Structure formats: structure tokens, C-alpha cells
Amino acid sequence: MNTVNLIGRLTRDIELRYTQNGKAVANGNIAVNRAFKNQEGNYDADFINLVMFGKTAEIMANYVKKGQQVGIEGRIQSGSYEKDGRKIYTTDVVVNQFTFIDNRNSSEKPNSQQPIAGEPIDVSDDDLPF
Predict the structure, then answer these.
(1) Is residue 129 part of a domain?
(2) Deepest in the core among 23, 54, 98, 116, taking most CB within 10 A?
(3) DSSP result, 3-34
(4) Domain presence at residue 102
């Protein structure tokens, strides 16, 4: 079983791009506080790379911004690539679902097209990366 659930804050805006076939792909990063304090009495955080596909990528890129807290459900995916003759290993969380936890810009009123936290999103088989 490969399931990950995280709650944290985006460290940067989501970067959205499209493949040559028109499929949405996005990348982001989330900071997740550890459950215990370090020797200085502070909470350390882990910074976790996120990858999104299809409608999930488009919605996150359009409605979630740096600093906002989100809940993520996904799976871990590892990979590697060559850079300057060295093999670089990566570990990402592929986002299956997300939940808006807070809105840093609470003065902004959601428009009628903005999804509501917990609202199901229609995704077709064509949106899936596998």
C-alpha cells in the first residue's frame, strides 16, 4: 500500500505547464511540521515535493497560493535523472486529492467557479497519468 496524507503550507505557488498532448502537469512544494520539538524547542519542518496531473493540477495552480494550508492525499513516487554526469534521485508525492484548509486571503470572496473544500471533482480516465 502506498498512501500518503499530509497537512502543510505551500512554500511557493504551483507551477503549471502542459504536455505536448495538452495534459496539465504541475509541481509544488509543501512544508509539513514535525510532531516534536528540536533541542532549541522549535518545530522542524520537512519540505516535500508535489506533482499533480489533470484537473487537480489546474485547480491547485489556480486556487491555492504560497502560504496557504492544504491537506494532501497521494502516493510516493521515486525516480532519477542524469545531471552533469551524476545520477540524481528524487522522491515526490503524486497528489490524488487535496482539501483547502485555510484561505490566507480571507478578504477575497470565492467566485462561483471556485471549488469548495470537500466538493467532489469530476475527473475522466483521460486525466489520469497511468
Answers:
(1) no
(2) 98
(3) -EEEEEEESS--EEEE-TT--EEEEEEEEEEE
(4) yes
> What CA dihedral angle connects 22, 88, 12 and 112, to 10 degrees?
30
In what helix (H) or strand (E) does residue 118 lie, and over which residues does it extend?
Answer: none
C-alpha angle 30-16-106 in degrees, rounded to nearest 5: 60
The dihedral region occupied by 87, where left means phi > 0, alpha psi between -120 and 50, and beta the remainder, is beta
- The whole-number average pLDDT for the span 21-30 is 95
Instruction: Give the DSSP H/E element, type plus range, for residue 59.
Output: helix 54-63
Q: Which helix (H) or strand (E) holds 61?
A: helix 54-63
pTM: 0.73
Whether residue 32 is contained in a domain is answered as yes
**Quick check: 80 and 88 in contact, CB under 8 A?**
yes
In this structure, the number of other CB atoms found within 10 A of the CB of residue 110 comes to 11
Total structural domains in the chain? 1
Domain-located, residue 123: no
Q: How many residues does the chain have?
A: 130
Q: 56-74, pLDDT tens digit by residue?
A: 999 999 999 999 999 999 9
CATH number, domain with residue 21: 2.40.50.140
